[in-house]
Amino acid sequence: MPAQTFDAARRALKRGELAAAYYLHGPEDLLKDEVARAVLERALDPALRDFNFDQGSAASLDPEAVYALCNTPPMMADRRVILIRDVEAWKRKTKARTTLLACLDRPSPDAVVLLLQGAAEQGEDKDLAARAVSISCDPLPADRAAKWLAHRGTPIGVTFAPGAAELLVRVVGAELGPLASELEKLAAVSTGEPVTEAQAAALVGARQGETPFDWRDAVLDGDAARAATLLGPALQQAGVTGVKLITLLGTTVIGIGVVRAAYDRNARGSRLQDAAFQAQRRARVYGLLSWQDEARRWATWAPRWPAPRVRAAVRTLLEADTTLKSTALSGEWGILLDVSMRLST
């Protein structure tokens, strides 16, 4: 079946279009849950949902249970919805999986099957994708994550003043799980007024100009003194670890390397910035600032980062990543300070 993006799937459901089966995969479990809720809202009358919604985990389902789930008729309704989580637990030769594939080949006209794959399993299951609408729930870019925060906050009484949601994303990152946790904290202390940038910063222990991105920018700008000053505040912020900072630097350095190749082909000005933007789109780069903001930065840094310097930086970051993963938290600061100094010069 043709694949759909998360956005396309949501639009189709709003139009009332329901498929017989959906296969949800990718790293963002919260987006999978949002699609599943949208299917339930579209497919079932809330008053009859308890009678016509069944769910289970793949590992606990035998072939008979799978067949029964997919073929039991609805009760006083037009259709049923079946949700099966952790479908990656089924190996290719599993009898329960074989039964499911047979049911998907001959779908019941009054059932909708939702198949959710865990975030840890990155690859797409080709057999499921061929029999169900395949929706990849990928991480959102930073600007979309900020909009997601605002949308998710409204039902629980949290609204944001201009710049506040964006600040949370810059500090916490665009991964939706940690952002949802911060949103719950805001809901617990909400006064009904929009959350300001200052309040958002206080929640995560951040100050303007002292985020992990500010530290990264100082390193890549070659400002070793500022990078050293920002390292402590960056590490103290909610959800920030040494490995996360190294990952931030590593992703950016690799991106700079790609843009430097365009620079070496005489791309300049807007052409160089466009090359940076297109590189992010092709690679679906997430976990950074918005693609536009990153494109401006990468195009600015690329002339100062020739290929040998990029390769040396990648080796340094790989070494630091390995060391950090076997080092106590108390040793993070020294390792990251050494990385800051080596990459800043």
CATH superfamily of the largest domain: P-loop containing nucleotide triphosphate hydrolases
Major sheet: arrangement of strands:
1-6-2-5-4-3
How much is the average pLDDT?
90
Gyration radius (Cα, Å) is 23 Å
- What is the name of the CATH class of the largest domain? Alpha Beta
N-to-C series of helices and strands? EHEHHEHEHEHEHHHHHHHHHHH
Assembly category: single chain
Q: Mind describing the biggest β-sheet?
A: 6 strands, parallel
Q: How many domain regions?
A: 3
Could you please describe the fold and organization of this structure?
- This protein is 57% helix and 8% strand.
- Helix 4 (63-71) links the parallel strand 3 and strand 4 (80-85).
- Strands 1-6-2-5-4-3 form a six-stranded parallel sheet, sandwiched between helices.
- It has three domains: 4-136, Rossmann fold (3-Layer(aba) Sandwich); 142-204, Helicase, Ruva Protein, domain 3 (Orthogonal Bundle), CATH 1.10.8; 212-344, Up-down Bundle (Zinc Finger, Delta Prime, domain 3), CATH 1.20.272.10.
- The chain starts with a strand and ends with a helix.
- It is an alpha/beta fold and 345 residues long.
- The protein is globular.
- It is built from 17 helices and six strands.
- The mean pLDDT is 90.
Q: Could you give a quick summary of the protein structure above?
A:
The chain is α/β, with parallel strands linked by helices and 345 residues long.
How is the secondary structure organized here?
Layout: E1 4-5, H1 6-14, E2 21-25, H2 29-43, H3 49-52, E3 53-57, H4 63-71, E4 80-85, H5 95-105, E5 111-116, H6 126-131, E6 133-136, H7 142-153, H8 164-172, H9 176-188, H10 197-204, H11 212-221, H12 224-235, H13 242-264, H14 269-283, H15 291-301, H16 307-324, H17 332-344
Parallel strand pairs: 1-6, 2-5, 2-6, 3-4, 4-5
Helix pairs in contact: 1-2, 4-5, 7-8, 7-9, 8-10, 11-12, 11-13, 11-17, 12-17, 13-14, 13-16, 14-15, 16-17
